[in-house]
Amino acid sequence: MTLTRDFKQTVVARVERDPDFAKALLDEAATLFLSGEADTARLILRDLVNATVGFESLAELTSKPSKSLHRMLSPKGNPSMDNLAAIFGAIRGWLNVKFDVRVVAA
Predict the structure, then answer these.
(1) Is-contact 75 39, C-beta < 8 A?
(2) Helices 7-17 and 19-34 meet at what angle, rounded to 10?
(3) Which of 47, 57, 53 is nearest to 11 (CA)?
(4) Average pLDDT for consecutive 10-residue bins of the chain (106 residues)?
(5) What single-letter DSSP state applies at residue 64?
(6) For the whole model, what pTM was predicted?
(7) How far from 72 is each of 43, 66, 76, 101, CA to CA, in Å?
(8) In the chain, what are the helix, strand and coil shares in percent, each to the nearest 5?
(9) How do residues 47-73 score in pLDDT, each as one tens digit?
(10) How far apart are CA 61 and CA 78, in angstroms?
């Protein structure tokens, strides 16, 4: 039997060795939210939080309870825009990146 690595461990390892991967995950989550694919965006954001700041530190940065953040970023979560803005802002600050929004014609 082949040994496989847990997906979460794979994401954490990749983020640790490639900081640009974390930035790409943040970009993808933002793009998915703006494109109406909130379910997938929440899951990517959850993996990014686990691989970087962690939910306890995110709770401190956003002044939101850790359990609430877990629920917001769960598959059935339903965070408000204010909460999403706080989460994105905290992760953006943690990764030391800024958003550059561009509209592309369809």
Answers:
(1) yes
(2) 120
(3) 47
(4) 69 86 92 92 93 94 95 92 93 87 72
(5) S
(6) 0.83
(7) 10, 10, 8, 24
(8) 65, 0, 35
(9) 999 999 999 999 999 999 999 999 999
(10) 20
Tell me the two tokens of residue 80: 């408000």
Q: Which residues are CB-contacts of 58 (< 8 A; sequence separation ≥ 6)? A: 49, 64, 66, 69, 87, 90, 91
Residue 58, burial from CB neighbour count under 10 angstroms (0-12, 13-18, 19+)? buried
- Which amino acid is it at 31? T
Length of the chain as a residue count: 106
User: What average pLDDT is seen over the chain?
Assistant: 88
